[in-house]
Write a structure and sequence with these properties.
Structural class: mainly beta
Distance between the termini: 35 Å
Helix content: under 10%
Protein name: DUF2490 domain-containing protein
Strand order of the largest sheet: 1-2-3-4-5-6-7-8-9-10-13
CATH architecture: Beta Barrel
Signal peptide: 1-24
Organism: Spirosoma pollinicola
CATH class: Mainly Beta
Order of helices and strands: HEEEEEEEEEEEEE
Keywords: Signal
Oligomer: single chain
Largest sheet: 11 strands, mixed, barrel
Length: 261
């Protein structure tokens, strides 16, 4: 009981810090309306041979369940080195639209490939996921330009089951993560993504999550022709609704209810 109370206190502290930091980020820019992220994921857990994979579809809206402007289609193959270490190679197609003029097609499309390492820590009550990702990105803009960019991402995700010691069937859990996006060319610190939410695992297959994510993009400060332009940060809050279905797999090891995005 003492450990459980300590865990709950830790959760409250982390949530407060998360929300406070999120508010501090978006206060740098004019207020913007809330958006929406809808995420549907199909997961094949690693089994006896340790091979697995996933497929995901995602849609985003500029306001709450309205003004659709962005889609993702992606999938990948994973390999479990053991319960705590997983390697993944994946790719996807990303499209950004003008929500006011969808019939004209996307403003730009992106083809992305990435390599990833996940390290899990299973403590008595709190579970941590460390995710390291390297991305290669090919763009195709409406004006005909086709730039290439690369990016490095690191995400620290914490899971805390409320009514069970592990995230299993009929478990309510909390999830909090912070992810940084680094650009080798610049600006080095390109983006920060903060998430806090609650989830419920119905059984070994179905998981639903509802949360809030604040995504803040950063532009480097510049000094050009005697004019100094300070760092610009633009942030936005989004409601996140995620639904995950795991395929049944013989001798599949315990997996955290992580979001591949």
């Amino acid at each position: 009981m003492i450990r459980f109370r300590f865990t709950l206190s830790l959760v409250v502290l982390v949530l407060v810090c998360t929300l406070s930091r999120s508010l501090a980020q978006t206060s740098l820019t004019p207020s913007s309306p809330w958006g929406t992220w809808l995420i549907g994921t199909l997961v094949l857990p690693g089994g006896e041979k340790k091979w697995g994979g996933f497929a995901e579809v995602q849609g985003r809206a500029n306001s709450v369940f309205n003004q659709f402007f962005y889609s993702e289609l992606k999938g990948g193959v994973s390999y479990d080195l053991d319960k705590n270490f997983t390697l993944t190679v994946a790719g996807g197609r990303y499209a950004t639209y003008d929500y006011k003029d969808l019939p004209d097609g996307p403003l730009n499309t992106e083809k992305r490939l990435w390599e990833q390492l996940i390290i899990n820590q299973y403590l008595t009550r709190v579970k941590f996921e460390h995710r390291y990702r390297v991305e290669q990105r090919w763009f195709n803009f409406r004006d005909g330009t086709t730039p290439y960019r690369s990016r490095i991402r690191y995400r620290l995700n914490m899971f805390i089951p409320i009514n069970n010691r592990t995230v299993t069937a009929k478990t309510t859990f909390l999830s909090v993560y912070d992810e940084v996006f680094l650009n080798p060319v610049g600006p080095t610190f390109e983006r920060n993504r903060l998430y806090a939410g609650v989830g419920y695992q119905f059984d070994q297959q179905w998981i639903v999550q509802l949360g809030m994510v604040n995504q803040t993009n950063y532009n480097s400060a510049t000094f050009d022709q005697g004019i100094f332009t300070p760092q610009l940060a633009t942030g936005k809050y989004n409601v996140v609704v995620g639904l995950t279905y795991r395929l049944k797999r013989k001798n599949a090891t315990e997996k955290l209810p992580t979001q591949p995005d």
